[in-house]
Structures are given as C-alpha cells and as structure tokens.
Design goal:
By secondary structure, the protein is α/β, with parallel strands linked by helices. It has 19 helices and 25 strands. The strands form 6 sheets. Strands 1, 2, 3, 4, 5, 6, 14, 15, 16, 17, 18 and 19 form a 12-stranded mixed β-sheet that branches. Strands 20-22-23-21 form a 4-stranded mixed β-sheet. α15 links the parallel β18 and β19.
C-alpha cells in the first residue's frame, strides 16, 4: 500500500478560518489577534474573564524512552484530541512549538504525523508566529547588555571569567558551542570565552512557559542570574536593567497560538522548552486557558515519562496548581523490541523474546505514573502494519499484571476514528477519579534529597554520586535560598540511566551529577548528568538536504 507523506496530507487539508475555531471555543473578537487566515494569537486576558468558569479535565500524553524506531507521542496527542471530539466531547489539544534545529536536523518536522496532524503544518514547523525568534532576541539582548556593561566600566564588578549567560540561536550548529569573542582591540569589547545555546534551551524559553502574565514574566526575567562578581555574588538581569526591554520583546510571544487539527478541532501550540535541559512542556498560560475553554484538554510532555512527565508533574503542575486527570503512555512494538536489543533493520520481524526483554522499559514508566505519582494511566500502542497479534497480546498481558489497560491506536492512518478505543478508555479512567496523587519530593526537601528521590524512585538507580563541582554548587544554591526550588534533571532521553547505551530497564546503576545550574528566573535547579548538550549539531545527512520549495511556493521534504 502506498502511503502519502505527512506534508502531502497536510497540504491537502481543508482548513477553517481561525475565527470559526475561536467561535467554537467561545472566544470573543477582542481576544483574537489573527496572523493570516489560519493562525491567531489569543490574548491571555481571557483568563480573567473566564476565571470563574470550571476547569476541564487534563489528559497528559507521555511515552517510553524514545528510540530510533519512533513512538508517536505528538501523533497520539493530536489523534486523541480528534477522537474525543469525534465521540461528542468538547476537547482541544495543547502542544509545544517545534524548534528549527530538529526540523532541519533529524526530525524534519514535529506537528504530528499521517492523519493526526496540526495545520498549517509548514508554518508551525518554520517561523510560525515568531515566538521562538522573539525569545532568541530577548536572550541576545541580555547578552549584549552584559558585554556592554563591562565595556562601559563594569560598575557591577562582573568577573568576566564567570559569565554564565550564553547567546542563543534556533538552529543546530556545533561550531558555535564554544568560542572566544570580543577580539579586535579595545573598541570591540572585552575578549572572553562564550558560546551559543539553541534557543529552546534558553532560560528565557523556560521563563516564558512558566509565567502567569506579563508582570510575572518581568519579575522572572529580572531574577535571571547572568554572571558572578569578583566577590562571588550573583549578578542578575534586573541589576543590568534589561528585564523591561526583554519583556517588551516578549509581550506578544506570551500569548498562546490558536491553530487546528486536520479534523478542524482547535489546538494551542505555545512554547517549546527542551525536555532534557529544561522542563519540556507547553506554557502554563496555554494549558490553563484551554482548561477554561474545553471539557477535555490533551497535552504532552517531551521525551519519555522519566523526563517529560516527571517534570510536567513535579515542576509545571507544582507551579500551576494542576493535576492530570489521566495519563496516556505511548509505546510501539518496534520501539520495545529495540529496547530488547533488536537493531533498527530487523524491527519489522516478529521477535517475542526481544519484545519481552524490552517491555520492562514500558512497565517502569507504568509503575512511575500509577504507583509513584498515583495517577490513572492507560497504555497506547501506536500500531504499525508489521505488528503481529502475538506481539500485541504479549504487551497486553504484561501490562495487565500492573492493572493497566492497553488500547491500540491507529490515528496515524485513520485520524480520530483510529483513536476512539483509546478515547473511551481515557474517559473511563477519568470517571473513576483518583485521590491518591503525590509529588515525588516535597518543596522543603534539600536539593540533594530531591535529586536522589528522582533518580532512585523514577529512574530506578541504586545510588547517586555527586562530583566535587556539584557539591560546591549545591551548597552555594542553598546558601542563596534556592534549596526550595524544584529540580530539573538534565539527562539522556534514551535511557532510564545517564548512559544512553543502557536500554530496557537497567538495574544496579548509579547516576552521577557532575554539576548544577541555577535557573533563578524559571525557579528551578538544573542537575547536569552525562554529556547533555545545549547546542546540538546536525547529523551526517540533515533533514535540511531534502527540504525544498518550488516556483509556486510549495514546500516539499518537510515530513
């Protein structure tokens, strides 16, 4: 059977004007700022108007540890939203914005897939409404003001060897990770080491996604630590008087973006923090607004449940006062066989032994959601044509031992119609309710204790080791009164451990924390493990090589 590519499907979509989507949600004209026919910004002032409206039910979509075989978390999120609407529920989805780095690098697009996509797909994957560009501009304004302050006399006595703020660009470019700038003589700045992060790894992105309004945004921006002075005291964006101008650049980016699915159901796409170096969730404003406008909101968190879902719950939900009403854990037969040791080339072959070895990865995520966080969950198997009944039955059998149901999801091929089984099982979970929810750690736990609880309870580590640099940084953070902050673990997404090569469900391993970073604006502590990079590089054959546009402006290769 010949399947159409994602972009071919998206380009054939018949979209509704964005005003019709807003009408469906009950959004008045005064809150709509159209960006052409099919995109709009929604003024977050609508939250004040809707403050007394009841909240809808929140459904979180997460997954197993990702593999080269793919899992389809965004596709499942979009398809589930369409399926809920198809069975008569008022539902919408809330996603993150794609970054240009992955689009031109490995992924080639991040707007769902097949017949479960958000559109206009090309716009969403490329410049969209300019949010990420605005975040990059605010990040780089702050960087420019740091160096200008030093050049103009350095009244704050900044130690140029201890500037921690880096420049940002929304592209994968390894050449920019580390550099020396300010060369060329006195008039061209002070020579120092510097570097770039990809924009979605910037603390400005995390700040925007965790802010409640423009005032909160400005306060958080002012608290960002950019450097330390020669007395080892932190220097902030507020001390540089940069936060007001940064907020001015971000005032429109703070507003959620309204688009639609292929089935003309509403979707908010807003914010895009990385899930390994940041918290990996769309904005609090978008999620809260959606909950006031719909009875059901389906959202996702980046990477596997050990990263995205843990941060969604322990950081985003803690700060926003939210609790998921149900959780969907996405897996594929192919990905589980990869966790069981099968190479990518042989994933289409039935292999029950390998599948049985890989299923414990799924079961650990099931355990974390249902027994650690005490949330109701269902497993969604994103079905592929080569999956056999024996393989699917094995997954159902193993999940049954944890008391968790499995739903087959065929939304890639069938859209919302392929997700009705999943939608119905999610609704039954929500109806049952849940009263045992808990966070993994308490606010009053120390930084070391928080890290240990995440590593040992969520990852399954037997121990946590702290390098000397980490110990020193933790002591300093707690002396600065930041021990109450949540912890944002920076860890490989490919494994439950900090070693990307250890697949499945490893045992008897230790996690090593090499250092921490203080994100005082976002109000979390980043614990660095392994070799996490904040500026990725392009692969040997980047997706950009296949992307083109013809004389009529029609884009191809953006799959």
């Amino acid at each position: 059977m010949q399947y159409k590519s994602d972009i071919e499907i998206a380009q054939q979509a018949v979209m509704k004007p964005v005003g019709e989507l807003a009408d469906k949600l009950g959004i008045g004209e005064e809150y709509i700022e159209a960006y052409g026919k099919y995109k709009a910004k929604i003024d977050y002032g609508i939250l004040k108007e809707k403050k007394d409206a009841p909240n809808g039910k929140l459904i979180l979509v997460t997954a197993i540890n990702p593999t080269p075989a793919g899992e389809g978390k965004t596709t499942t999120t979009v398809g589930l939203g369409d399926a809920l609407n198809a069975i008569g529920k008022k539902a919408m989805i809330a996603l993150r914005e794609p970054s240009l780095g992955p689009v031109f690098g490995v992924k080639g697009g991040a707007a769902g897939g097949g017949y479960a996509q958000v559109v206009p797909m090309e716009d969403i994957n490329l410049h969209f409404t300019g949010d990420i560009h605005a975040i990059g501009a605010a990040n780089n304004l702050l960087a420019a003001m740091i160096d200008n302050h030093i050049h103009q006399g350095n009244e704050l006595d900044i130690d140029t060897r201890r500037i921690v703020w880096r420049r940002a660009m929304d592209m994968n470019d390894r050449q920019l990770r580390y550099m020396v700038n300010g060369l060329g003589g006195k008039g061209n700045g002070v020579p120092r080491e510097d570097g770039f992060d990809i924009t979605v790894a910037s603390e400005v992105m995390a700040v925007l996604c965790l802010s409640g309004d423009i005032t909160d945004l400005k306060n958080r921006l002012s608290n960002i630590i950019v450097a330390y002075d020669r007395k080892n005291k932190p220097v902030t964006a507020g001390q540089l008087k940069a936060h007001g101008a940064m907020a001015a650049l971000l005032k429109d980016a703070l507003k959620p973006n309204l688009v639609q699915t292929l089935e003309n159901n509403p979707a908010f796409i807003h914010g895009g923090p990385f899930a390994n170096i940041a918290h990996g969730c769309n904005s609090i404003i978008a999620t809260k607004t959606a909950l006031k406008l719909c009875d059901y909101v389906v959202t996702e968190a980046g990477f596997g449940a050990d990263l995205g879902a843990e941060k969604f719950i322990d950081i985003k939900c803690r700060k926003a006062g939210l609790v998921p009403d149900a959780v969907v854990i996405v897996a594929t037969v192919r990905a589980l066989k990869h966790h069981g040791g099968v190479s990518k080339e042989k994933l289409n072959e039935e292999n029950l032994d390998a599948l049985k070895k890989g299923i414990p990865n799924l079961l650990k995520h099931v355990e974390n959601i249902t027994r650690k966080f005490n949330l109701p969950a269902v497993v969604a198997i994103n079905r592929f044509p080569k999956d056999t009944e024996a393989e699917l039955d094995l997954i159902k059998q193993e999940c049954g031992r944890y008391g968790v149901e499995v739903a087959l999801s065929e939304v890639w091929e069938k859209g919302g119609a392929g997700g009705k089984e999943l939608a119905e099982k999610v609704l039954r979970l929500i109806e049952k309710g849940n009263k045992g929810f808990r966070f993994i750690y308490d606010d009053n736990d120390g930084i070391v204790e928080k890290i240990k609880k995440i590593a040992m309870e969520i990852y399954g580590a037997k121990a946590v080791e702290f390098n000397a640099a980490a110990v020193k940084s933790i002591e300093q953070a707690e002396e600065m009164g930041m021990g109450r902050f949540p912890v944002c673990m920076a860890k490989t997404q490919y494994s439950l451990t900090d070693n990307p090569k250890l697949l499945g469900r490893p045992e008897d391993f230790a996690v090593t924390v090499r250092d921490i970073r203080i994100s005082a604006g976002a109000e979390f502590i980043v614990a660095l493990t392994g070799d996490i990079m904040t500026m990725p590089g392009l692969p040997k054959m980047p997706a950009a090589e296949a992307i083109d546009v013809d004389g009529d402006g029609r884009i191809s290769g953006l799959f």
